[in-house]
Prior knowledge:
- There is one protein chain.
- The chain is of the alpha/beta class and 457 residues long.
- Helix content is 47%, strand content 13%.
- Helix 13 (320-334) packs across helix 15 (358-372).
- The radius of gyration is 30 Å and the shape is elongated.
- The N and C termini lie far apart (78 Å).
- The model has no long low-confidence stretch (mean pLDDT 89).
- Bound molecules: adenosine-5'-triphosphate and magnesium ion.
- Magnesium ion is lined by residues 176-177, 241.
Amino acid sequence: MASILVIEDKESMAKMLSQALEAEGHRVVLARDGRDGLNQFKESKLDLVVSDLKLPHKSGLEVLEAIKEQNPMIPVILMTAYGTIETAVRAVKEGAYDFITKPFDPDHLIHLINKALEKQRLVTENIILREEFAKQLKLPKIIGKSPKILEVVDKVQRVAASHTTVLLLGESGTGKELFARAVHYLSPRKEEAFVAINCAAIPRDLLESELFGHERGAFTGAVARKMGKFELANKGTIFLDEIGDLDLALQAKLLRVLEGEEFMRVGGTVKIMVDVRVVAATNKDLQGSIKQKLFREDLYYRLAVFPVTIPPLRERVEDIPALVEHFIAHYCEELNREAKSVTPASMELLLKHPWTGNVRELQNCIERAVILTDGQVISPENLGLRAKELTEPGLPDLPIEGSLQEVANAATRYAETRLIRRVLKEAGGNKTKAAEILKVSYKTLLTKIKDYEIESS
Ligand SMILES: Nc1ncnc2c1ncn2[C@@H]1O[C@H](COP(=O)(O)OP(=O)(O)OP(=O)(O)O)[C@@H](O)[C@H]1O
Ligand SMILES: [Mg+2]
């Protein structure tokens, strides 16, 4: 079913057309003249326009031009009387899908409409396919039965059916993109586009045009009009990944879009209206960014209508065996290797590893192990997990935020604390000896021990 705008001033003709189209299962919006037609176009979400060429207030040609400006993807079919065929031909050159000469058989028009809709669907799909490259378009399997992951799955299932904006929070590699896709593929929009954009991966000057599109000549290099991701995602879902990296100017523009679902292309003057479900994700502490004035509080509240936090893998160790099995099966098939399983010793290592890179790190580890293992059993050596002590008791994780200087200070403190502790232990608590090994003066060592609160037993 499609929503079709019919612009026709002759009452009997309008009635005949709407009956014929409704009988085909389409929704019809009628307009009596060009001006009315354009207003209707702005107000309702339409898939196709059938317009008479000769109309009161604004001709069919002017209607065509205005519609193409707002949404170049909408097919426009013009109806023409014998005397205006030349104009109709010109219209097709200017972007009309086709024209039909009056009087015509309604079946002929329906045939044209179906062809146009099919073509439009293919074009949109093509653009999206290109954008998505070889990425899987369907919902990948979500593995895990831990209470924590089941809670996330439950939340996602509940919110999917609505239009509600979802904010996915979680460390890198926890599955934010996976769950963003889940929101889309569990929603009524699943047949429409899922368009993802990584706000951190695109330079600031290009990001605005990526998101909102641009008009020809909007900036050097803008040789043609381009649709932005918001337009491509129309009727579907847009996934704004790494939203915490969006700069303040674009945050303001995004906020306006979320409030009114309306925006202008870069260099444009026409307001574009879209119907898009927004899913955003970040691994940043947005509350912290708000305090540092790096993220707008009002935008945060718009986005965080329904926040979902995906717990890190180390907090749901129960999921590891199933994930391991899933990834082994996946890579054995993809790499064409014989079936494999892990030894108990390997599983023990896998369960103990801190997985700071979460599921992605585990996935990479298994891919590597499958490549390295010739037989059927994956031994600990092939996992390549050195029993590295990433965290030490009493030492907080390294904070990776704030200024470069702050991070550098924290890293220095972290490394020095570990080294001093180790050397003190090796020297049996003898600080003079420890200072010698560390090649600092006794006084310096004492100051550091005091500053870093190192217990010197
Ligand atoms: N529960 C899960 N079941 C199966 N696969 C998973 C699960 N969670 C994550 N994955 C897989 O792990 C990989 C990383 O997930 P994803 O890209 O969604 O993480 P992310 O949170 O977006 O990470 P980043 O912050 O690094 O972008 C993907 O290949 C994804 O399919
Ligand atoms: Mg991601």
